[in-house]
Amino acid sequence: MGETAGGGAVPLEQRRRLLVWGLPRDPVATRHLMGFFVTTVVTVVVTRGALAATGFPQLGGDGLHIAHVLWGGLLQAVALLLLISFAGPLIRPVGAFVGGIGFGLFVDEIGKFLTDDNDYFYEPAPALMYVTLVSLVLGADWVHRRFPHEPSEHLAGAADYAVAGLVGGLTLRSRRDAARLVEMGRAAPQAEQVRALLAAIENDEREVPNPIGAAARRFEAAALGLARGSWATAATVTLVGVALGGALTVVVLSSDEAIAQGLLWLAAGAVLSAVVAVGMGVWGLWRLRSDRVAGYLWLRRAVLVTLLVTQVAVFRFQPWIGTVGLVVCLVALGVIAAERWRVRHQG
User: Fold this and answer.
1) How far is it, in rounded angstroms, from Cα 299 to Cα 286?
2) Distance between CA atoms of residues 167 and 40, nearest Å
3) 5 class by beta-carbon count within 10 Å (0-12 exposed, 13-18 middle, 19+ buried)
4) Staple 307 to which of 2, 24, 282, 329, CB 3.0 to 4.6 Å?
5) How many C-beta neighbours within 10 Å does residue 191 have?
6) CATH topology of domain 212-346
7) What contacts 269, CB < 8 A, 6 or more positions away?
């Protein structure tokens, strides 16, 4: 709605509310958000693993206990200050990385703040952490996928690169990313002006490190490399099968514990969702024979049902196995995305 098909500007009052308020969505925000969530999960796993390996030591003494939730809050504040203090797109992945570590340290102690005796080992805590992260992921996905990005939002993203380039030049990668956004926003007014501005900025390969971008590029390259292999389909089906079968097995084996703790409803719901996911997976495997794009879409849906529903129960009963399942699900989604891209672009 921001621009007409011919490129003319639509009056402000007819644009979407966020655009009227001057709040364009960052076209690459999903990568930063995923980096934030993955960093959070890794931080929780590393923290719990390190504490278990060292006998859960406490920092402090003489009646003081400096909980790591305090370090988490401090790092979240540092991330916020970074994002407030510096303009341009280059600070966002740094802020997402630092904030992810901080949020991981913060949410890891959720059990202490839900129990009268400050119980760090509160059994539902891992499941509550997982539900919290899933809710945040779904909320972020809703913000960025409810409506497609307007051409003006792509153009604003390109102009954001110019903000950094005006003071420090542009690396070749940043220039390519900005050019791609200009092309996607070519229907917006001032597209040629932004293109000309970017062209006038000098090249400079020095910029702040981007840990999230580097990790994402390596993962994407690995997923695409796997998708190009002759055994890509077998690897994809194996990953999906491990994710679905592992989750279902854990829930079934935990049925006695669920009954003892009055959580039969949780186990029953998880089994039901797992059965639905298995059905989707089988249907996707069948569709691969005639329509590979549709087949991979159904496999993706099967993994998402497992990730968003079944895994909640797995984290409640077997947190460490749930963490392994989470990793398998994320890898499976990455490989499925790469496979779908390969089928669409290479046939």
Assistant:
1) 10
2) 32
3) exposed
4) 329
5) 21
6) Four Helix Bundle (Hemerythrin (Met), subunit A) (1.20.120)
7) 309, 313
Of 172, 68, 62, 194, residue with least CA distance to 120: 68
DSSP state at residue 310: I
Query: Residue 244 is encoded by which pair of tokens?
Result: 């679905």
Amino acid at 243: A
Q: Which residue type sits at 128?
A: L
Q: pLDDT tens digits, the chain, 347 residues: what are they?
A: 444 444 445 555 566 777 777 888 898 888 899 899 999 999 999 998 888 888 877 776 666 777 889 999 999 999 999 999 998 899 999 999 999 999 999 999 998 888 888 888 888 889 999 999 989 988 988 888 878 888 889 999 999 999 989 998 999 999 999 999 999 988 888 899 999 999 999 999 888 888 888 888 888 777 777 666 666 677 778 888 888 888 888 888 887 887 888 888 888 888 898 889 989 989 988 988 888 888 888 988 999 898 888 888 888 888 888 888 888 888 888 888 877 777 765 65
Calculate the alpha carbon distances from 55 to 49, 52, 59, 70 in Å: 10, 5, 12, 20
Q: Where are the alpha helices (DSSP H) in 54-171?
A: 68-85, 91-107, 125-145, 151-168
User: Tokens for 116?
Assistant: 């009268």
Which residue from 308, 189, 311 is spatially nearest to 248, judged by alpha carbons? 311
Task: Tell me the C-alpha distance between 82 and 285, whole Å.
Answer: 46
DSSP, res 188: S
C-alpha torsion 134→336→185→153, nearest 10:
0
Q: What is 213-267 written as a DSSP string?
A: HHHHHHHHHHHHHHHHSTTHHHHHHHHHHHHHHHHHHHHHHTHHHHHHTT-HHHH
